[in-house]
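#random but structural
TW: two for the price of one
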Amino acid sequence: MSIKTKDHRIIVTGGAGFIGSALCRFLVNGGAQVINVDKLTYAGNLASLASIASNPNYHFIKADICDAAAITEVLSNFRPHAIMHLAAESHVDRSIARSSTFIQTNVLGTHVLLECARAYWEQLQGGSKDQFRFLHVSTDEVYGSLPEDGFFVETTPYDPRSPYSASKASSDHLVSAWHETYGLPTLITNCSNNYGPYHFPEKLIPLVLLNALERKPLPVYGDGRQVRDWLFVEDHVKALTLVLENGRIGHTYNVGGRSALENITVVQRICDLLDERRPEGKPRRDLITFVADRPGHDRRYAIDPTKIESELGWRAQETFDTGLRKTIDWYLTHEAWWRPLRDRVYSGTRLGLLNSETAETTLTKTWPA
């Protein structure tokens, strides 16, 4: 039995984050009733949800997915048709400096959520039980690093290389086990690198963009030849909705934008597009600075999204060029959103340095509730 998101009640965990907020906006605007459960760590920002904050179909609850009592209360009061689980610590550099937070949220938090969801699902009756879904949103990083050719597919063996990817691989395995052992109707998606509006400025594209605007150095790890596959966030949330509605229970779907590019190419394109829009003397490519590589840096990621394309009819609508132009134009006109983050939460300093005092102090900052 499929689920239709319109008029259904959906819990989104991590809905104040980058992908989560895009998902909340998409679902609410499509007619779903959404309850956003978010702890509001440094990367959670309710300003990203301002456009739907007053919508009667949207509700926010500040709660930690590790708090079983809080999650049980939300499930009991809201009676959802589905849970879309996005709450996670997600930045590789931060996982290098402080792995315990990633294990706590990504592994233990997912376990708590699964157990609460199982207890809730087991007491449902008839059609309500048949319709319920638990969608776990994960990353292509669980597969490790590819050689110079080939693509990740749903059957690619897991080979995580960082504390972050190891924690996400662990959570994926838990979700699969809860389906196989208890029959919980789960789905998993593994996506490539997202980008777009409302992206917290620690990740490559917004970090480079804002540093370039301020004519600060643009750090590129190693030789810059690492390859990542890029996915516009609005394409991603459409894919998640399709998987929730029509995906086969117990299955994994890889979601990628068919836009694999070297990091140095991405940085150069950002520079060139900013020079077109805000020309300021010397070209911004002159700001590119090669720095010591990240420990354990995977060389190449690339996703084959054939399964979701053929089974569910999803296609990425944005090319990297069209998506990047939209992203840059959004940041240029939304300084009121990103300026407080740069000034009070994360200024753009490097993270992920082993035994780094800078990394440790930056990690302690949180966004005010």
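TW: number two ↓
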Amino acid sequence: MPRTALTGSRIRERRTMLGLKQADLARIAGISPSYLNLIEHNRRRIAGKLLGTIAQALSVDLSLLTQGAEAEHLAQLTEAAASLPDTNAEVDRIDEFIGRFPGWAGLVVGQQRRIAGLEQRVAGLADRLAHDPFLSASLHEVLSKVSAIQSTASILEETEDLDLVWQKRFHRNLHADSQKLAEGAASLVDYLETEGEPDLGMVSPQEELEASLNRTGFHVAALERALPDSIDRIIAHDPRLKSDAGKDRARAYLEQYRRDATQMPLAAFSDAAAAARYDPAVLSHRFGTDVLAVFRRLASLPEVAGVGRIGLVICDGAGALTLRKATELMPLPRFGAACALWPLYQAMSRPMAPVRAALEHAGRPGQPFLSYAISHPSYPGGFSGPAVFEAAMLILPPGLVEPDATVGVPQLVGTSCRVCPAVDCPARREPSVLSEGFDTR
């Protein structure tokens, strides 16, 4: 049922909320109560002057009766239904559900948002448990202290004629080891409970840079004006850039950002991107620069409210992710390998050949989005030196560009095998920690 067909349901909902009788509203509108009853049950269309009169009588904006305030609810409920296809939810009646029970619809939407947030948190923690070197070392240290305490306690318990001097020595060891265990456990808990999505704490210079850039959606307004001391000021005043290595990486990226901004001025580039439907090849030709620079520039555009942010992932020749711009369309792994089905890795297998594909994330089925990827070599050691490859993948939200038939059927991808709910995936490397999944066939 189209949303405009639910105008009657919204009229009935508003009238009931105001405590207005059907006969009274019919009298104000100049129609019979029986005709209003047909309208309220969506059996008669309503528009024009009559609709305006009823909207005025109900003290509500006309658009709220014709379109409703449920556009976001509609998208969220559709996503919830797609994530659990076995429930056979009546997707074709979502509009009716929203129109008749807006409170319950809001409750389900709120739960869906919470589930999505918790899934992202679980994915981050699972990724950390599997690959975080700091966590692995900390757990090893905790277990070592537990073993030492257990061994010392066993000696004290089982040795009846232990010399007093040795007893005191073992007691001192017990005290020291238990104190270190308590400190290590407290530190580990603090680390695991670090607030913030998606950072979960920073342990490398790369993460310091990404945390700094994701805070503003990779848009650095100060560098759009080409102020000479902007980079130094940005680095000095950003608390996320703590280590010297993190500051060095930030400086290199921000200098590159300034070069991109100079070559592709924000206003002209934004207009050209919209006109070209955000096609990186068209923009590369328009501004006379390489496609990877266009990827970076698109990722630096200010985020449009309600559209979602453009995502960006860059990897080196070994497949390790070297830069990640967070996107709600596809959570990105913090540690370990990403999904082998990403166009990013397809591009790596054929340098300089562009890859364009429609994707769906396994955790959010039914929400296709467009992706571009490309790989290219550089020769920092000179013409006779080794080729150093880098690949990049751009993720465009459907609010900017809807995938069309020219890109084919959307490819189902995940974040990483460890937290991917898809089953029977031909590229799976290890079992998922998510016990429930769905067939990708």
